[in-house]
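tool_call predict_complex ligand=flavin mononucleotide
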Amino acid sequence: MTSAPPPGSGPRVLLAYFSRTGENYWNGGRRDLKVGNTKTLARLIADRIDCDTYEIVAADPYPEAYDPTVERNSAEQDDDARPAIARDLPDLGKYDTVLLGSPVWGSRAPMIMSTFVEKADLAGKTLLPFVTYAVSGMSGIDDDYRTALPDSTVLDGLALRGEEAADAGTELDGWIKKNRLAT
Ligand SMILES: Cc1cc2nc3c(=O)[nH]c(=O)nc-3n(C[C@H](O)[C@H](O)[C@H](O)COP(=O)(O)O)c2cc1C
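tool_result ok
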């Protein structure tokens, strides 16, 4: 039996995510996103569960325009780069569970997610990946985290089309219930 957290110790779940504003794919065309799709989804999750939230912000921001972002991401993938994160990483000691969100970029998580999972101490934590995408679904990103984090338990992830993130409430409720994230 797990013991209850001491009063005042705060949430045991951290929601960490990366998302990009600016020009992006949208139903076969392009749209200028004031709030990134993954951030929209992260906000809906945070509204539903007791969690702390940490936004992974790139020290060198990605371009507003879509094509240069694709080019930079391709170069970062080719170089196996670890783009720097702008802010201090959260202290993970108090969390049992980490929800890890990002878009799909080039059929993988953005390389800055590798920066995060390698620098944050995720050993012994339960990870729940979630992604937003245009066409390619989870793209094996949960398996990539399993490979990168052999000392963590990586559960099956949630993958949603970016265009549907704002309307994902019902699906999210099911996911939250299935993974016992509600308090
Ligand atoms: C650099 C880049 C690469 C992308 N690569 C893919 C991809 O491989 N597969 C896919 O389905 N969507 C891809 N997309 C679309 C995004 O995954 C999708 O629009 C996502 O919802 C964006 O989330 P965000 O607004 O939180 O950044 C890509 C978008 C960008 C900017």
